[in-house]
Design brief:
Helix Hairpins; 6-stranded antiparallel β-barrel; conserved putative lor/sdh protein from methanococcus maripaludis s2 fold; OB fold (Dihydrolipoamide Acetyltransferase, E2P); elongated; 7 helices
């Protein structure tokens, strides 16, 4: 069978297949089309409510000791005692002796001052004895003068009677005048004694001052730590000769630490209550941190470990940084080494970079929402029919984790906290409550730091 005949046999087979397919599909109707309904977009939401809000500001700064003491030499001499363990960074307790200077010269000054005082005191005793002697001599001379006066009167009577010579009368008159002169000399000597005593008293006071100075210099030969501290600098060695005015050592206070942190001006201003400073000064009132009622906490975070220290708001800086528009605030931490367990909880040593949390007085009946729920000045609200409503709001406080609204939202309304793109008014939603965000919002709003500090819990 040739090729042409084969082709002719294939054509009837194809035709038969087409006819069979048409017969099989004939009479079948199309599948019914279902009309597609409106799709609901899943979103996460939180329910807002009016509550007390504690405004907060967070700043950063470096730890510095509250007191830095420079041990300046007030006397000169050779260092004869310096504990070899004293090196930079060592801890020194209050009352520990840092070093001792040779006190031989000051011991001699002390002995000389004591000897001078004893000599002057002896002169004062001698002066008192002289005063007693003069008083006794004056009494005797007074009696002698009275006797000479009586004898002169007797001779004056006898010379009128002519029983004594004129020469005897003149001789008695001279004796009377000599006795009177002797009495006057003694009286003059007694009169000068108080001035002599004043001179001796002045000399005694001068020598007493020299004694006090010698004792003070003797005390200054020992340098003692005035408080618990860490040794920041040590500038002397054993047997070194030091002079007056040299800085021997520098000690950093361990009992208290301070942090000067910088805060955004708009955040810090939300903590401060209105104060009429001019009126207060006119009434002799001193404005200070006690009027601001600001609670404070110092926080250090390393990896996932967070350590906190209660602090006290002390003061603000003198002005505002013109470049960063931040205000500096100083907080104080008592016992920054208490509870230190390096490396889990290191102490607040000098230079540690920390965060400072400040909290102001609570503000009542505030509507607070998470920051991610605010889109410009618009909040996405879920209506009762689970549809989207884009609502304009007015913002009050802007806090690190939340904002408060002064208008546009009511308590118990639901707002969307998840990303919604696109956000079209009236679109159908499938809302799911975000409990984690609700808990985080409540923790940020309540501000347990300020509450604990104020109630003393």
């Amino acid at each position: 069978m040739n090729q042409k005949v084969r082709r002719l046999l294939i054509i009837p087979a194809i035709a038969i297949g087409v006819v069979v397919f048409m017969l099989m599909t004939k009479g079948k109707s199309e599948a019914p089309r279902e009309e597609q309904g409106e799709l609901a977009t899943p979103v996460r939401f939180v329910t807002v409510q009016a509550q007390d809000v504690v405004p907060q500001a967070i700043g950063n700064g470096n730890v510095m000791p509250a007191r830095v003491w420079s041990a300046v030499s007030q006397v000169q001499g050779r260092v004869i005692e310096l504990p070899p363990r004293y090196r930079k960074g060592m801890i020194i307790r209050q009352g520990d002796r840092l070093l001792r200077i040779d006190d031989s010269d000051y011991q001699l000054d002390l002995a000389q001052a004591k000897a001078s005082i004893l000599a002057i005191q002896a002169q004062i005793k001698q002066l008192d004895a002289r005063k007693r002697n003069l008083n006794n001599s004056i009494k005797i001379e007074q009696e002698s003068l009275e006797s000479a006066e009586k004898e002169l009167e007797r001779l004056n009577k006898l010379i009128k009677q002519g029983t004594v010579s004129v020469s005897s009368l003149e001789s008695q008159r001279r004796a009377y005048l000599a006795q009177k002169q002797q009495l006057q000399n003694l009286t003059n000597s007694l009169t000068l004694l108080p001035s002599d005593r004043e001179v001796l008293n002045a000399q005694l006071a001068q020598q007493q001052a020299q004694l006090d100075l010698a004792q003070l210099n003797l005390q200054r030969t020992e340098i003692v730590a005035p408080f618990n501290a860490r040794l920041a600098e040590l500038n002397v060695e054993q047997d070194q000769y030091i002079r007056v005015g040299e800085v021997i050592a520098v000690l950093d206070d361990m009992d208290q630490a301070e942090v000067e942190a910088q805060f955004p001006l708009d955040h810090f201003s939300q903590l401060v209550q209105p104060l009429d400073i001019k009126a207060m000064m006119a009434e002799s009132e001193t404005p200070g941190p006690h009027l601001l009622d600001i609670a404070a906490m110092v926080r250090v975070q390393r990896n996932r470990q967070v350590n906190e220290w209660p602090a006290q708001f002390v003061r603000t800086d003198a002005g505002i940084d013109a470049q960063t528009r931040t205000v500096g605030a100083v907080v104080k931490v008592d016992d920054p080494y208490t509870g230190a367990m390096p490396p889990l909880r290191p102490p607040l040593v000098k230079g540690t970079y920390v965060s400072v949390v400040l909290e102001g007085q609570p503000k009542a009946d505030q509507i607070a929402i998470p920051r991610q729920a605010l889109h410009g000045n618009v909040v996405y609200v879920i209506s009762g029919e689970n549809r989207l409503e884009r609502r304009q709001v007015e913002v009050g406080l802007r806090q690190p984790g939340f904002v408060t609204l002064t208008a546009g939202l009511k308590s118990q309304e639901r707002i969307i906290v998840s990303d919604l793109i696109p956000a079209v008014d009236g679109m159908l939603l499938a809302p799911v409550e975000d409990e984690g965000t609700s808990v985080a919002l409540n923790m940020a709003v309540l501000g347990s730091l300020g509450r604990l500090n104020r109630t003393g819990e």
